[in-house]
């Protein structure tokens, strides 16, 4: 994903949206369902606080983490894969607050006022959703655990714009996201620390070297 793309609504635009449109807000407790494919929801959802997971559950009840979202991310019904992929949903990992954005009114405002800042940010977020999916596929295609970890960490470096990366989700969930065993993940992180590739302090990791762009 290019540096010009963004995945978050800026604090300035978030404040404006809440004050100008006064959207309905709803709090979700841990593990509560936010979006489901079989419950149509046309409105845009703005995650104001908390962490939410996009998950897929198969017929056996096995659940897989497909993506994760933190404050400032947009959620919408069409981001969920079709039913042929299994039961897909967005649920709160930790307590979340969602603002339901009025899509038609928001579009009308942007067209009427020609607010390029807001329009560019929304377009960038929608475009980056596709870029992030491709990036996740690229990470999963790496043939080794270290390759997957390095691809993920350097992607986080680009997003967080820092060589000091905060892992945004617990390591048990990161292992699921990377499709590797948690103990193998932790072992490889320790080896990378010993090899001088990274410095690890709980979920704070300092990357040594530039890595891929």
Structure summary:
The chain is an alpha+beta fold and 213 residues long.
What does this protein structure show overall?
There is one protein chain. The termini are close together. With 213 residues, the protein is of the alpha+beta class. Helix 3 (116-140) packs antiparallel against helix 4 (145-160). The chain is globular. It has 2 domains: 11-127, Sandwich (Jelly Rolls); 142-207, Winged helix-like DNA-binding domain superfamily/Winged helix DNA-binding domain (Arc Repressor Mutant, subunit A). The longest helix has 25 residues, at 116-140. Strand 4 and strand 5 form a beta hairpin. The strands form 3 sheets. The chain has a 4-stranded antiparallel β-sheet with strand order 1-8-3-6, with helices on one face. A 4-stranded antiparallel β-sheet has the order 2-7-4-5. 39% of the residues lie in helices and 26% in strands.
Query: What's the Cα radius of gyration?
Result: 18 Å
CATH topology of the largest domain: Jelly Rolls
| Outline | globular
Q: Report the portion of residues in β strands.
A: 25-35%
- The string of secondary-structure elements, in order, is HEEEEEEEEHHHEHHEE
Tally of structural domains: 2
Instruction: Bin the helical content.
Output: 25-40%
Work out the number of β strands.
Answer: 11
**CATH uppermost class of the largest domain:** Mainly Beta
Query: What structural class do you assign from the helix and strand content?
Result: alpha+beta
Indicate the low-confidence ranges by residue numbers: none
Q: Describe the biggest sheet?
A: 4 strands, antiparallel
Output mean pLDDT.
Answer: 86
Strand order of the largest sheet: 1-8-3-6
- Span between termini: 9 Å
Query: So, the CATH homologous superfamily of the largest domain?
Result: Jelly Rolls
Give the number of helices: 6
